[in-house]
């Protein structure tokens, strides 16, 4: 019996190819392993493919700080930076809720009104009705979650477009806000009360320990999470980040955290609003990236029919997302009320909603659904609040502030659209 050498060679090649296919590694990770030049090559590849990540936001923050520091000379003062980190909590919490909505590719125009009516309910119950403040806060947040469930029901079950549902909610809850507040239209908060302290309280009454402790703890948790992810992926035979990249990322987080702690300690220490905001961002990020529910949100945002065929309860995901966004709006409204010292009929109006939406888009969450993270709310609101604070320092009229914020929002949306188009042309969309 003779053996065909061509057949034998082909079989041998196929046998050799099988292990090679099994051991195939993500080429992006191979590039990273090449050292510094590998990182440069990967950065170029990502930029060419439209995967810009947080680069525009970070560059924008540096540019904003440089411009306003040169114009005012005190933009980077510890007290001004501390105020920025305090003031981002209110609109930032609303922005976290918007991230969940935008991941579905939908919109919620009612969140400003939900924030306003929630603050009104909590203020009236605690001040005029004598209800315990903690209970008043819980009732207000619960009422907001109910409003979100109502929006989600009409959208997911009845089929009314989210734009129409939430626009109706905007009008309805604005009217309810005025009705709850009554003829006076304003309720001053209880001095040194729960709501009043949300914006003014510093952990340890200015003790420098808390800011340093949070910086060290945050860095340690980040490193632990990266190492755990590396271990799990390696054990499963999946491509994992090289250790050099993990330590580089940890080093960057450590520098940012420690510098922030130093700046805060030059003022009054660690503000409560920043702690709560960071906690919400971290929890939201964990929910979206590490839980089944989070994967379902991304699945629905990526394609409703595909998600339904995969067994996802699309209606429940949609309703729950609007409940989350409304709850976050209520919490944000309480911080805004604390900042201004009262609950009034104007709270939540003006540019509150637009700034929150702008923050999320500027931070990198796509308006078209399926792409984003809660960290984009933090990065984006830092940009928005830095611009607002800087313009206030140079005494720019509010009308000009609105136009500049609108231009920044438009620029972010254009960048998002171009990025998506570039990724599609590169086969990554």
Automatic annotation (TrEMBL):
Q: Which residues cross the membrane?
A: 52-72, 84-104, 111-128, 134-156, 163-182, 208-225, 246-264, 270-288, 315-337, 349-368, 375-394, 400-418
The species this protein belongs to is Kitasatospora cystarginea
What this chain does, per the entry, is described as: Part of the binding-protein-dependent transport system for D-xylose. Probably responsible for the translocation of the substrate across the membrane.
Q: What topology in the membrane does the UniProt record assign?
A: Multi-pass membrane protein
Q: Which Pfam families match?
A: BPD_transp_2
Q: Which InterPro entries match?
A: ABC_transp_permease
Location within or outside the cell: Cell membrane
PANTHER family the UniProt entry points to = ABC TRANSPORTER PERMEASE PROTEIN YPHD-RELATED-RELATED (PTHR32196), XYLOSE TRANSPORT SYSTEM PERMEASE PROTEIN XYLH (PTHR32196:SF32)
Which UniProt key words apply to this protein? Cell inner membrane, Cell membrane, Membrane, Sugar transport, Transmembrane, Transmembrane helix, Transport
Name of the molecule in the record: Xylose transport system permease protein XylH
CDD domains per UniProt: TM_PBP1_transp_AraH_like (cd06579)
């Amino acid at each position: 019996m003779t053996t065909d050498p061509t057949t034998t060679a082909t079989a041998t090649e196929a046998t050799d190819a099988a292990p090679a296919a099994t051991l195939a590694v993500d080429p992006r990770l191979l590039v990273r392993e090449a050292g510094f030049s590998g990182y440069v090559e990967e950065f170029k590849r990502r930029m060419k493919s439209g995967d810009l990540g947080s680069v525009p936001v970070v560059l924008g923050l540096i540019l904003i700080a440089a411009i306003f520091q040169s114009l005012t000379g005190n933009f980077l003062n510890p007290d001004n930076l501390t105020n920025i980190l305090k003031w981002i909590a209110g609109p930032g919490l609303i922005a976290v809720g918007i991230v969940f909505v935008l991941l579905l590719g939908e919109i919620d125009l009612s969140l400003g009104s939900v924030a306003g009516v929630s603050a009104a309910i909590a203020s009236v119950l605690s001040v005029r009705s004598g209800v315990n403040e903690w209970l008043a806060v819980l009732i207000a947040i619960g009422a907001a979650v109910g409003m979100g469930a109502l929006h989600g029901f009409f959208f997911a079950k009845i089929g009314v477009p989210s734009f129409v549902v939430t626009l109706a909610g905007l009008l309805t809850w604005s009217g309810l806000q005025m009705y709850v507040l009554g003829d006076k239209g304003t309720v001053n908060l209880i001095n040194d009360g729960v709501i009043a302290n949300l914006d003014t309280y510093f952990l340890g009454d200015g003790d420098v320990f808390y800011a340093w402790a949070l910086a060290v703890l945050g860095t340690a948790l980040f490193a632990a999470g990266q190492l755990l992810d590396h271990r799990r992926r390696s054990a499963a035979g999946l491509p994992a980040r090289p250790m050099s990249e993990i330590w580089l990322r940890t080093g960057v987080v450590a520098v940012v955290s420690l510098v922030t702690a130093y700046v805060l300690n030059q003022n009054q220490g660690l503000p409560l609003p920043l702690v709560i905001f960071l906690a919400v961002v971290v929890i939201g990020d964990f929910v979206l990236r590490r839980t089944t529910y989070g994967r379902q949100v991304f699945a629905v945002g990526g394609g409703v029919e595909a998600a339904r065929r995969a067994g996802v309860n699309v209606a429940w995901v949609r309703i729950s997302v609007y409940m989350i966004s409304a709850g976050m709006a209520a919490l944000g409204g309480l911080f805004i009320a604390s900042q201004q010292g009262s609950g009034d009929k104007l709270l939540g109006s003006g540019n509150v909603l637009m700034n929150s939406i702008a923050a999320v888009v500027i931070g990198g969450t796509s308006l078209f659904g399926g792409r984003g993270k809660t960290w984009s709310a933090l990065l984006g609101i830092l940009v928005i609040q830095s611009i607002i604070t800087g313009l206030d320092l140079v005494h720019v009229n509010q009308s000009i502030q609105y136009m500049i914020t609108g231009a920044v929002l438009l620029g972010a949306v254009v960048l998002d659209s171009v990025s998506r188009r570039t990724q599609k042309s590169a086969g990554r969309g």
